[in-house]
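seq:
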Amino acid sequence: MNNKFKKFLITLIAIIGYGGWALYSNWDFDALAQNQMVAIRAGLIQGGYSGLLTLINIIILENLFTRFNSAMSYPINMLTTLLCTILLQYSIIIPVHLFNGTPHILITLLPGFFIGTTFSFVYLLSIRQNYYPIRSV
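struct:
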C-alpha cells in the first residue's frame, strides 16, 4: 500500500468513526428533530476536524520524530513526540467544541483520546526502523 493511499484511508476512517461517535454521544432520543441539530453539527465538526487533524497528526508525527531522532534516544523521542502532538491537537479540539456548545465534550473526546494516542504510538512504532534501526547482536 503506497503512503498516500495509506494516509487517505486512515483519514477516511477518522472522519467516519469520530464523526459517528460524536453524533451518537450527543443525540437526545427524546428531543424534537429540530433540537438534534446540535448533535448533527457535533458529528460534522468532530468528523471533519478529526479527519483533518489525523492527516496533520501523521505529518507532524513524522516531522517531529525525524527532528528529535538525532538529539534524543528512541524512548524519549517517542514520549516527546506523543506529548507534543497530543497537546497541539487538544488545544484546537476543545475550543472548537466549546464554541459549538457541544453538551458532552468529555464523552465526545474520550474515545478519540485513547484511540488517537494508541494510533500515534503504533504509527511511530511503524516508522521506527527508518530512524532507529534495530541492531542485531
